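User: I'm writing a short methods note and want a consistent example. For ATP synthase subunit a, I'll paste the sequence; you return only the structure tokens, no commentary, since I'll be parsing the reply automatically.
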Amino acid sequence: MNLSFFDQFSSPSLLGIPLVLLSLLFPALLFPSPGNRWVNNRLSTIQLWLLHLITKQLMIPLNKNGHKWALMLTSLMVMLLTINLLGLLPYTFTPTTQLSMNMALAFPLWLATLLTGLRNKPSASLAHLLPEGTPTPLIPALILIETTSLLIRPLALGVRLTANLTAGHLLIQLISTAAIALAPILPAVSVLTVAILLLLTILEVAVAMIQAYVFVLLLSLYLQENI
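Assistant:
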């Protein structure tokens, strides 16, 4: 029984071929393709409004140099948001519950922000490793602490997204299993459990949206430090 709870996190495959790439590409089918009339229905209008709102929120902490990253950050936000929300549907697979995928997203983007700072403003980037006014005896220790804090940023990004989504999926499966098991024994308790499950599902929708936003927002803050 314990192993079956984690079966939903195993990578799907068909004839031994992993289907993770298909899971990543499927959300793109939900968005309209460009045409002569880009805003041709209400769904496209809502999507454009959401894209404009997301881009505006992500670009607030960045200066003009950081606006070059607007397309990549917005695309990443839309991809994570779509994958997280689709993963809450029954009989679906959520790629963002895989730590390997989240680290593959977090590490290159974090490294890109770091290299951008070292290339454009090396002195300012290295100055973050040592706060101003630090007593001389504490300089080696603080440099070591700040360097460690800098290097674990991509790990924190990946683990945060993975842990929050994995915990939510496990809770949903545990409560739904309990509701099914209690149905023939205690119907009233089963109905109450289903009500709790509905509330938890609403909460998980919010968590899926918030975690996608937090992932991209932290990347934008790391970028702001280096530009």
